[in-house]
Every structure is written in structure tokens, then in C-alpha cells.
Amino acid sequence: MTSAVAIGCALALAGGCFAQNQPHQATLVLESGANLPSTPMFTPPPAGQDLPPCNIVNTFANGVIIYTVPVVNDPGADPILRRWDDKCGITIWLKGFRKVSVTLHDGAVIVLKQTGDPEGSTISVTALHVPKEAAKAYDKGIEAMSGGKLPGARKWFERAVAIYPDYAQAWSQLGQVLEQQAEPEKAADACGHALKADPKYMRPYLQLIRLAVSGKRMEDAVTLGERALQMGPLEFPGIYYYDALANYELKRADVAEKTIRKGIDLDTAHDYPAAEVLLGKLLADKGDTRGAIEHFDKYLQLAPKADDAGAIREQIAGLERSESQAK
């Protein structure tokens, strides 16, 4: 079957399965121009976006992806929710390439940039051996997560790992659901199962480090961070952020500064704007007022409506007064 025919079939299928969803098409392109080496993994975009998550219908080796956008049928819903048209949010993962969180629109071309081949993987090798029924349960779990249906997602991910106990990606997704349901101990246990199944799968490291920091277990966070950073998790700037935050809390300023600078360099999607605040604090602590102001300003540019934006502006004002008095 040619790509053109395959695309046509996918569109027809989409029209039949999603009666109220218009199928759209976008393209993933590798820097080298080659076909995709494997099928990417798609997950919901970072929290805080106004757009809905994309529903991926099909992906082809030439990079073409067919997707639909959820439709709001509730006439009482906020009108802004019904102006999505062809736009939706998605996070795209492909081993050996940088993770990207993007807005898809009809005709969009997304360039995936290579990261080299760090030892730590963005996609678990255990996914290569998943039984069909476990894979189906996993897909249903992702679909439920995309729709914000956490209880349903939890059920499907639990079913996936019951069928295939070494399913690292399903354990990791179950951990995310449990964390969102405010069950941190169960979330950590699920992520621990993911690491046991695949010690080179990077996503559970990020989850476990974040949970350790949230639980004020900074030494645990640093221990996990050291393990993860040895594998060069270039597609996970969050690991650098939380590791630096834990080191900062433990008064290890030099280590924290080195790590957070690396994390900021890697975070091209600006998923962790708070990294700028952390670097600003580190610089302020060692008397680099101008550097601190620069990074606090950067944070406000990235997150102008953040809850702590007012407090950061006050810090900037205080630093500027100190700088003026020193002249």
C-alpha cells in the first residue's frame, strides 16, 4: 500500500470513527530527512495549556500523522473551548531525538532534532515485547488520560501491568496518574516498578526525583539524580531542575549551579521556567546581583502570570535598590 493510499484509508477510518471530529494532517521531519526510525510515543502536553490534547489516529514512516481534535458538545461551555478548529497540544517522544511539546495544526511540519545516543532511553525497551492485550490496555489508558479521566486511566494501566508485569511505560504512566490523584507513596511504588523493569528508562527517574523533592526527601532526590545524570538524560531537563533544587536545599550551591545551567540549556521548550528562579537565587546568594536580576526577568517573561510573579518582581526591585546604593 502506497503512503498516499494509506493516508486516504486513515482519513476514511478517522471519518467513520470520529463522527464529530474532523481529521487533520501534520508531518514529523527528521533533521537528516530520513524516514522515522520507529513509531514515536505521544503523550498529553504539559499542564497549563489552553489547548486540548491531540488524538493521534495514525502515524506513517514518512512522518505523516493523522490526528483529530476533541469537540465540546456542551452548549453551556466557555466559548473559547469551541474555537480549537485544527489546533491541539501534544508531546512527542522519539528515541535519539529531543522531546518536543508542540501545538499541531493542519499542515504543520515539526522538525525533530537529534540528541545523539545517550545511554538513558526515553522509550523503554520493554515496550518491544508487550503482549497485544497489554498494549491495548495501555492505549486506552493514554486515551483516558488525554480526556482527563484519571480513574479510567488508572484502571487501564493497572490492567496493562497485570498482563505484563515488566511493562515499564505502563508502570510509569500509572505513577503519573497516582501522583495526580494525590497518592505519592503509591506513585513512587509504581515508578519503582518501572525502573526495576528497565533501569535505563529515564522517565521514572524524573518522576521519582520530583516525588522525593515534593516529599522533602532531598538526599533521596540527589541519589536518584546522580544515577540519572550519569546516563546523560538530554531529553529530560526536569531531571536537572529537580536535582539542582535538591542540591540547593542541601546547601550544595556549586553543584546546584552547574546542574541548573545545564538544565536551562537543554530546556528549549521552556517546560521548567522555575529553573530561571533557582539560578537567580544562586547568583543572588553569591553577590551576582546583575546576573540574578537577568534570570528573574527571564522567568517573568516565560511565566508572567505565575503565582509567585509578584514576589519575584519584589525581589528584582530589592536587588535593583541594592545595586543602586552600591554605586
Which helices and strands occur, and which strands form pairs?
Elements lengths: L2 H15 L6 E7 L10 E3 L11 E5 L4 E5 L19 E6 L6 E5 L4 E4 L19 H15 L3 H14 L4 H13 L3 H14 L5 H12 L3 H12 L7 H13 L3 H14 L7 H12 L3 H14 L6 H18 L1
Parallel strand pairs: 1-7
Antiparallel strand pairs: 1-4, 2-5, 3-4, 5-6
Number of helices: 12
Instruction: Report the β-strand fraction as a percent range.
Output: 5-15%
The best one-word shape is globular
Low-confidence stretches: 1-20, 77-82
Q: What topology, given as strand order, has the largest sheet?
A: 3-4-1-7
Oligomeric organization of the protein chains: single chain
- Major beta sheet summary: 4 strands, mixed
What is the percent of helical residues? 40-55%
- Which structural class fits the helix and strand makeup? alpha+beta
**Through-space gap between termini:** 73 Å
Q: Radius of gyration from the CA trace?
A: 21 Å
Order of helices and strands: HEEEEEEEHHHHHHHHHHH
List its salient traits.
327 residues, alpha+beta, three-stranded antiparallel sheet, globular
Provide a compact summary of the structure.
This protein is of the alpha+beta class.
Q: What does the model show?
A:
The chain is an alpha+beta fold. The protein contains 12 helices and 7 strands. The protein has helices at 3-17, 132-146, 150-163, 168-180, 184-197, 203-214, 218-229, 237-249, 253-266, 274-285, 289-302, 309-326; strands at residues 24-30, 41-43, 55-59, 64-68, 88-93, 100-104, 109-112. The strands form 2 sheets. The protein has a 4-stranded mixed beta sheet, covered by helices on one side. It has a 3-stranded antiparallel beta sheet with strand order 2-5-6, with no helix packed on it. A hairpin with a 6-residue loop joins strand 5 and strand 6 (100-104). The longest helix has 18 residues, at 309-326. The protein is globular and about 70 Å long.
